[in-house]
Design goal:
mainly alpha; Fumarate Reductase Cytochrome B subunit; two-stranded antiparallel sheet; 9 helices
């Protein structure tokens, strides 16, 4: 006998297989948290995140920050040496040598990291290029710079949302990081060439800066001024990052750890 069950037209179910039953209370353990309210759950539904900073960018950020701290501390001590320390015979001490070694080692770490960061601007996502390009031809970009200035001066009631750097932060990063680090690398290795001697790789690549600025002592002073400019930038940068994490409409500090920018509301503007 032929099985005709396959020939029967089965109506497509248009309702969910499982439907909520009003006569059953949800177990407290099934809630998101013990004290979650309806408003909390609705807030979670609205929050979104975007993957902004890739792993190489985040790694560079923290390694570069550590290198700059070492460079600033040791650079200050090189310019303002410690008084003679009576901790042993002179032949048993190498304190200033260790300070200089730490400075030079951190300089190489920063330089290699910066070259890697330049490379990643070419192969990474479009957010990785923000550090190197300012869209000065974009009229709206200029408008948002002035808006951000008013926001930081507490003249605006509500901030705007940005996936990457806001225009003002992007400008500061470009001048103090992109140009600032380049300036410190060139002047620093020019000074380093004096120890390596004439004809060394550092002298060939950077030694021309010494007569250009008026001599070694002048270059030392210019290099130290660059250090203080970066210190001021670091203070402002840390303040702005913490301030924006609290007052803005998106995450800030955690973004440079996880890579994800989390937004606090679902409004697009």
């Amino acid at each position: 006998m032929k099985d005709t069950t396959d020939d029967i037209d089965v109506p497509i179910r248009s309702t969910p297989i499982h439907t909520a039953r009003d006569d059953i209370d949800i177990l407290p353990g099934s809630l998101l948290t013990g004290d979650a309210t309806a408003a909390d759950i609705e807030s979670i539904r609205r929050r979104t995140s975007v993957y902004v900073y890739e792993a190489p960018v985040r790694l560079w950020h923290w390694v570069n920050a550590a290198a700059i701290i070492v460079l600033c501390v040791t650079g200050y001590l090189i310019a303002n040496p410690l008084p003679t320390m009576q901790i042993g015979e002179a032949t048993h001490q190498f304190t200033f040598g260790y300070i200089r070694f730490a400075h030079f080692a951190a300089a190489f770490v920063m330089t290699i990291g910066f070259l890697g960061r330049i490379y990643w601007a070419f192969v990474g996502n479009h957010h990785s290029k923000q550090l190197f390009i300012l869209p000065v031809w974009n009229k709206r970009w200029w408008q948002e710079i002035f808006f951000e200035l008013r926001w930081y001066l507490f003249l605006e009631k509500e901030p705007k949302k940005y996936v990457g750097h806001n225009p003002l932060a992007q400008t500061a990063m470009f001048f103090f990081m992109t140009l600032g680090i380049t300036f410190m690398i060139f002047t620093g290795f020019a000074l380093y060439s004096e120890g390596l001697g004439l004809g060394s790789w550092a002298d060939v690549m950077f030694g021309w800066l010494i007569p250009l600025v008026g001599g070694s002592q002048m270059l030392h002073g210019i290099h130290q001024l660059g250090m203080w400019a970066i210190i001021v930038f670091m203070i402002i940068h840390i303040y702005a990052a913490i301030r924006e994490d609290i007052l803005s409409r998106q995450s800030m500090v955690s973004t440079m750890i996880s890579g994800h920018r989390t937004f606090k509301d679902d409004r697009p503007d």
